[in-house]
């Protein structure tokens, strides 16, 4: 059977039909497509490519141009950015001539973002596909802008928090200064009154001395001797002999008290050392803190110490003192009309030390207990509470890798318990 000659009409119509269909479909797809042959002569360009790149129709008429003509058109209108357009053209043509797969994103001066993908074709030439990514890029930019705003907000908040913590510290420094002033004022008051009494006593004594000198002279008259005796009686020398040593002793005690307060203040604030991690004796910190807040506490409660044996612990002593101070002052504030007791217990537990500060004050209900460590939570009237004391204390204990908890019964009192590791674990050591 001889082969029938090929049906020329079918042969011509079918490829033509297929081609037209493909071209029609190509014009509808949402990406720009351009096909060039191995000489970079454009063989096909779809409608979307012309739209996406704003390429005018005349560029493609009467016949499809060489790829370089499109590149030159783009370069002329500044699509590739500033600089010599001939250089842009040369660079892009060199890239195209390599006929290698490529994929990149280009932002046009009008803000449009294009995803550009080039794939070599099996028989030479290549196809370029443009996808419009502007919407996605804009969404990304919006996200970045929002992130920047959030970061800024976060930074503002952190700053505000730092300032508040600073103001709580200032408030407690103010409170502390007032207490210390009160404590120092009292001894200074009687020392200064004693000194002025002694000054007037000295005047009397010197007057008597002058009289005695005259009375003791070889040519002294009986009158002069009588005058000396009279003045001795007038100034009441016997009383002075008794009173002066008393005034001296009392004044010395006062001065010693002031010296102690100053020493405690120094211990409390470690004014002479830097704020560094160091091995320190907790009891010493507690003692100096009790002395510092004595004016807040002494009219309200007795402080009872039930101290165990504690090793030195690695800590920031000044900051722990701040914690003790906040707890002590809170305990004093919790006292009612009746004088109460604040009991401080300490002890060790495995590689930790613990400290409990109990008061038999007002206590506080569970719904308050749940919030006492929240910043700004206070049940005290304006001006008395900042609500930052326990939140600061919590932060300091956390920094020491410790815990702080409370147990409170309304009407009976409150106990705060702090557990601190003897030595801190440094993160880099822990993770190797
Ligand atoms: N020892 C205590 N007894 C009863 N309530 C307490 C005690 N310590 C703290 N609180 C409660 O916790 C709240 C928060 O304390 P704090 O953070 O020190 O702030 P402030 O003392 O400024 O109110 C207090 O207002 C009080 O209600
Ligand atoms: Mg407080």
CATH evolutionary superfamily of the largest domain? Histidine kinase-like ATPase, C-terminal domain
> Percent of residues in beta strands?
15-25%
Q: Which ligands appear in the coordinates?
A: adenosine-5'-diphosphate, magnesium ion
Tell me the count of domains.
3
Structural class: alpha+beta
State the CATH architecture of the largest domain: 2-Layer Sandwich
User: What's the overall geometry?
Assistant: elongated
Taking the sheet with the most strands, its summary is: 5 strands, antiparallel
| Subunit arrangement of the protein | single chain
Strand order of the largest sheet: 2-1-5-4-3
Distance between the termini: 87 Å
Low-confidence stretches: none
Return the average pLDDT rounded to an integer.
Answer: 88
Within the CATH hierarchy, at the fold level, what is the topology of the largest domain?
A: Heat Shock Protein 90
Approximately how much helix is present in the residues?
Answer: 40-55%
- Which series of helices and strands comes N to C? HEEHHHEEEHHHEHHEEHEEHHEEH
Could you name the CATH class of the largest domain? Alpha Beta
Keywords:
432 residues; alpha+beta; Beta-Lactamase; Heat Shock Protein 90; five-stranded antiparallel beta sheet; five-stranded mixed beta sheet; 13 helices; binds adenosine-5'-diphosphate; binds magnesium ion
Description of the molecule:
With 432 residues, the protein is α+β, with helices and mostly antiparallel strands. It has three domains: 8-132, Beta-Lactamase (2-Layer Sandwich), CATH 3.30.450; 164-269; 274-432, Histidine kinase-like ATPase, C-terminal domain (Heat Shock Protein 90, 2-Layer Sandwich). 53% of the residues lie in helices and 18% in strands. The strands form three sheets. Strands 2-1-5-4-3 form a five-stranded antiparallel sheet. Helix 7 packs across helix 8, helix 8 crosses helix 10 and helix 10 packs antiparallel against helix 12 (389-399). The longest helix has 83 residues, at 134-216. The radius of gyration is 46 Å and the shape is elongated. The model has no long low-confidence stretch (mean pLDDT 88). Residues 326, 329-330, 385, 389 line the site of magnesium ion.
């Amino acid at each position: 059977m001889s082969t029938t000659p090929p049906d020329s009409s079918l042969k011509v119509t079918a490829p033509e039909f297929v081609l037209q269909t493909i071209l029609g479909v190509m014009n509808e797809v949402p990406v720009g497509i351009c096909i060039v042959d191995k000489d970079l002569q454009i063989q096909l360009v779809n409608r979307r490519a012309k739209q996406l790149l704003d390429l005018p129709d005349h560029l493609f008429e009467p016949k499809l141009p060489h790829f370089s003509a499109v590149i030159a058109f783009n370069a002329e209108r500044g699509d590739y950015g500033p600089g010599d357009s001939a250089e842009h053209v040369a660079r892009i043509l060199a890239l195209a001539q390599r006929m290698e797969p490529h994929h990149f994103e280009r932002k046009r001066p009008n803000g449009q973002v294009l995803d550009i993908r080039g794939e070599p074709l099996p028989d030479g030439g290549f196809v370029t596909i443009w996808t419009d990514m502007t919407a996605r890029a804009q969404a990304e930019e919006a996200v970045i802008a929002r992130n920047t705003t959030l970061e800024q907000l976060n930074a503002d908040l952190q700053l505000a928090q730092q300032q508040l913590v600073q103001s709580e510290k200032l408030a407690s420094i103010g409170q502390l200064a007032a207490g210390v002033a009160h404590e120092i004022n009292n001894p200074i008051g009687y020392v200064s009154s004693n000194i002025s009494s002694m000054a007037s006593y000295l005047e009397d004594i010197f007057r008597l001395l002058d009289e005695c000198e005259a009375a003791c002279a070889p040519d002294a008259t009986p009158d002069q001797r009588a005058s000396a005796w009279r003045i001795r009686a007038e100034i009441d020398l016997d009383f002075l002999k008794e009173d002066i040593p008393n005034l001296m002793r009392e004044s010395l005690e006062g001065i010693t008290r002031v010296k102690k307060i100053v020493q405690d203040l120094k211990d409390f604030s470690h004014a002479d050392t830097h704020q560094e991690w160091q091995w320190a004796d907790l009891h010493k910190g507690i003692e100096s803190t009790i002395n510092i807040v004595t004016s807040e506490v002494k009219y309200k409660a007795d402080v009872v110490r039930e101290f165990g044996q504690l090793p030195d612990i690695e800590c920031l002593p000044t900051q722990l003192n701040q914690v003790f101070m906040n707890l002590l002052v809170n305990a004093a504030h919790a006292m009612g009309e009746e004088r109460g007791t604040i009991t401080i217990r300490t002890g060790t537990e495995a590689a930790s030390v613990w400290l409990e500060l109990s008061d038999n004050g007002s206590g506080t209900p569970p719904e308050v207990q749940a919030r006492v460590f929240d910043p700004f939570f206070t049940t005290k009237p304006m001006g008395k509470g900042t609500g930052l004391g326990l939140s600061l204390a919590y932060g300091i204990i956390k920094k020491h890798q410790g815990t702080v908890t409370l147990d409170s019964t309304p009407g009976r009192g409150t106990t705060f318990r702090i557990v601190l590791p003897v030595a801190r674990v440094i993160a880099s050591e822990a993770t190797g």
